[in-house]
Here is the input.
Amino acid sequence: MSKTYGIANIISSLGFAYLWRKLAVQSIQRGGSRICDLMTGGAECLSHIKNRFGSEPEVHLVDWCENMCRRADSTIKRRSHNNCTVINASALNLPAKDGSYDVVVSTFGLKTLSAREIEQLAKETKRILKPGGAVSMLEFSMPPNRLIRFFFRIYVKIYVPFLGWVFLGNPDNYRMLWRYTKEFGSCERALDAFRKEGFEINFKSRFFGSATQIVGYAQQGADSCSSDKQTIS
Here is the structure.
């Protein structure tokens, strides 16, 4: 999907993906000198991060897929962003020391994780954040209203793969979007996991629940899990 992910995301969401990413970043009320974009894809969220926090903060863009990392590198060079580093690593096992970041952002990656992996993500996010650090994560979700969910299902299950075929020539990858979204439900799945790790976390719904978001802060003075992982310099 890496070859077409960015444009397909915009086309298939009728532009809402761009707006939701922007809202996910704007929801963060605290800044800092170091920001981590988990499951960054092709760095689609980077411009919003730079617009919100300025060019000074250091931004680390993390993705496990090498092809996505190459696209993220290309995005950085094409848009001449400064202080950016792309890291090929799993969001569940980051090569960062405890308390490395002031802000952690993630958009459209949660739905690919199992319940156990979301718990691990919460632990890892807590570990890499400074006490009082901010987190914002957003994902496509199943609308709670039955009527809206009916049309949402038709759109995501049938129309999105069709768009992938018409514009991009690879519908098979986009058929997985419905399966992931249906099984994920909404970001409410992540609320308990993050609260158990000591986050002061809130839930937000976008466009009648077609996307949902969690946003909050690691509580001041909370202990982080110890780690002997290699430090990102």
Observations:
- Residues 224-233 have pLDDT under 50 and may be disordered.
- Helices lie at 5-12, 16-26, 46-53, 66-78, 115-128, 146-168, 171-184, 188-196.
